[in-house]
């Protein structure tokens, strides 16, 4: 057996402590699979005196000097599970430029400035692996980055945030409102004390940017992703979806397609949407993640599993560690970033979407014609209309055909100002052929 591959572990929180445990518990198997043992050279943390329970590691390995640890000559590979933009970016650039391969779970950094990391990896001739950054334990980035490189991916549709999936699943199951379901998610430990990144869609948008970059060979950042969270989803929306044989999910959607001028573009967005109960993503409940990939030759592929948690995320981190350690021993590196397609990002207003709109209207002659006229003025074609009683008035439920999102939003805006419309009670995008 050759000399050990030595790791600098940056961060020892939820994910990092499970990385330490797995490295300890599986050390013999990992060594056999790699052809050399893995050793922890040091662990950088913020609070050196923090109680870390019965973590199977020498306390002398802990340091608060992450940069000093990275620069040590006896460090071969850097594993970053701290999170955030700085100081993580500076650390990883330093490591990569020095030829030390990096494994990271840092979705925020990859989505904000993945280019800097990829450039540093190319400069230093090092590997940059980040399977854990999207959908936790689910092997997803490697299939996109390797297995599907012979194909042309056209669309990626995913549930990539467990917290919001738990909340929406609870709303669907019990009829609870958003606030009540969020409280339950917090009590059960699914939602963090500050749930903003999850419920406002920032976490999913970062993951969407990473997925789109890999799927379309194009640098997509979080700033390119249209983002809407789930805080405005009401119990009435969930009931409307149910009445249509649908459920509501927070979807990340990355799609390629021609714009009005025939130019190939990508559109990347995160928003709640109704999907039919027959869609494979509809049955993804609790805090699970799933990603549905469509490619020209492969057809439809579905990836499903746990998207968060210490052990599931550490599983993905360790898989990457094995890959970069093997590469190191073989004296090779994985193919560098593939961003050759450089497709322009199409703004949300030009994305083709479908809306489900519920209106409370006066129940008298000419009302339906007045409402239909608004759709016609914005060149939005109506697919179905259903009318039911609503007190002394009527409820109109309209589902459109696909149209530019800007035209649909303008239609809703004009409907809100119409005298014959008492209120617009629910507006949801529809995905997946409902
Ligand atoms: P935690 O907050 O649990 O742990 C963060 C760790 O980083 C802690 O050990 C902390 O030290 C250390 N740290 C923070 N700031 C510094 C600093 N300036 N210098 C040195 N160490 C520092 O985070 P998680 O483990 O939950 O997440 C880590 C990464 O994994 C993030 O990028 C996250 O997005 C990603 N991820 C997390 C998932 C999850 O389920 N938790 C799922 C998928 C990805 P100390 O222990 O002293 O406080
Ligand atoms: N907060 C994320 C979620 C987990 O709820 O899915 C880390 O990606």
Automatic annotation (TrEMBL):
Needed cofactors: a metal cation
Record-level GO BP terms: methionine biosynthetic process; threonine biosynthetic process
Record-linked CDD domains: ACT_HSDH-Hom
Residue ranges crossing the lipid bilayer per the database entry: none
Protein name, as recorded: Homoserine dehydrogenase
Function of the protein: Catalyzes the conversion of L-aspartate-beta-semialdehyde (L-Asa) to L-homoserine (L-Hse), the third step in the biosynthesis of threonine and methionine from aspartate.
Catalytic activity: L-homoserine + NAD(+) = L-aspartate 4-semialdehyde + NADH + H(+); L-homoserine + NADP(+) = L-aspartate 4-semialdehyde + NADPH + H(+)
InterPro entries: ACT-like_dom_sf, ACT_dom, Asp/hSer_DH_NAD-bd, HDH, HDH_cat, HDH_CS, NAD(P)-bd_dom_sf
Species the sequence originates in: Micromonospora marina
Residues annotated as binding NADP(+): 10-17
Residues annotated as binding L-homoserine: 192
E.C. designation(s): 1.1.1.3
Gene3D superfamilies in the cross-refs: 3.30.70.260, Dihydrodipicolinate Reductase, domain 2 (3.30.360.10), NAD(P)-binding Rossmann-like Domain (3.40.50.720)
Keyword tags: Amino-acid biosynthesis, Metal-binding, Methionine biosynthesis, NAD, NADP, Oxidoreductase, Sodium, Threonine biosynthesis
Annotated positions binding NADPH: 107
Listed pathway(s): Amino-acid biosynthesis; L-methionine biosynthesis via de novo pathway; L-homoserine from L-aspartate: step 3/3; Amino-acid biosynthesis; L-threonine biosynthesis; L-threonine from L-aspartate: step 3/5
Domain ACT: residue ranges: 356-429
Family named by the database record: Belongs to the homoserine dehydrogenase family.
Any single Pfam family the record assigns to this protein: ACT
Molecular function, one GO term: NADP binding
Keyword Metal-binding part of the UniProt annotation: yes
EC main group: oxidoreductase
Catalytic-site annotation from UniProt: 207 (proton donor)
């Amino acid at each position: 057996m050759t000399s050990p591959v030595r790791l600098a572990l940056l961060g020892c929180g939820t994910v990092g402590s499970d990385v330490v445990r797995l490295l300890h518990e599986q050390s013999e198997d990992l060594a056999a699979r790699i052809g050399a043992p893995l050793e922890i050279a040091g662990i950088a943390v913020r609070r050196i005196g923090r109680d870390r329970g019965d973590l199977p590691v020498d306390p002398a390995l802990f340091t608060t000097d992450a940069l000093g640890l990275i620069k040590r000559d006896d460090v071969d590979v850097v594993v970053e599970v701290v999170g955030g933009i700085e100081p993580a970016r500076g650390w990883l650039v330093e490591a990569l430029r020095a030829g030390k391969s990096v494994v990271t779970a840092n979705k925020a950094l990859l989505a904000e400035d993945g280019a800097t990391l990829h450039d540093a990896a190319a400069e230093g001739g090092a590997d940059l692996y980040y399977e854990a950054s999207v959908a936790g334990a689910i092997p997803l980035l490697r299939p996109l980055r390797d297995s599907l490189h012979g194909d042309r991916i056209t669309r990626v549709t995913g549930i990539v945030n467990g917290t919001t999936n738990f909340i929406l699943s609870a709303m669907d199951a019990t009829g609870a409102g958003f606030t009540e379901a969020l409280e339950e998610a917090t009590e059960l430990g699914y939602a963090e004390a500050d749930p903003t990144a999850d419920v406002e869609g920032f976490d999913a948008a970062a993951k969407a940017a990473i997925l789109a970059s890999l799927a379309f060979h194009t640098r997509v950042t979080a700033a390119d992703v249209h983002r809407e969270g789930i805080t405005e989803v009401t119990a009435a929306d969930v009931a409307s979806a149910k009445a249509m044989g649908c459920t509501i999910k927070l979807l990340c959607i990355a799609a390629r397609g021609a714009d009005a001028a025939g130019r190939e573009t990508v559109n990347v967005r995160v928003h709640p949407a109704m999907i039919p109960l027959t869609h494979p993503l509809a049955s993804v409940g609790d805090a699970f993640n799933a990603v549905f990939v469509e490619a020209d030759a492969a057809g439809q592929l579905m990836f499903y599993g746990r998207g968060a948690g210490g052990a599931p995320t550490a599983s993905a981190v360790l898989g990457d560690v094995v890959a970069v350690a093997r590469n190191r021993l073989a004296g090779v590196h994985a193919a560098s970033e593939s961003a050759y397609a450089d497709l322009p990002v199409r703004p949300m207003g030009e994305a083709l979407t479908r809306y489900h709109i519920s209106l409370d209207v006066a129940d008298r002659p000419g009302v339906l014609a007045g409402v239909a006229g608004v759709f016609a003025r914005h060149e939005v074609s109506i697919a179905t209309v259903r009318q039911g009683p609503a007190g002394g008035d009527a409820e109109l439920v309209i589902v459109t055909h696909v149209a530019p999102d800007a035209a649909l939003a303008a239609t809703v805006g004009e409907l809100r100002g119409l005298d014959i419309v008492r209120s617009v009670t629910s507006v949801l995008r529809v995905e997946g052929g409902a």
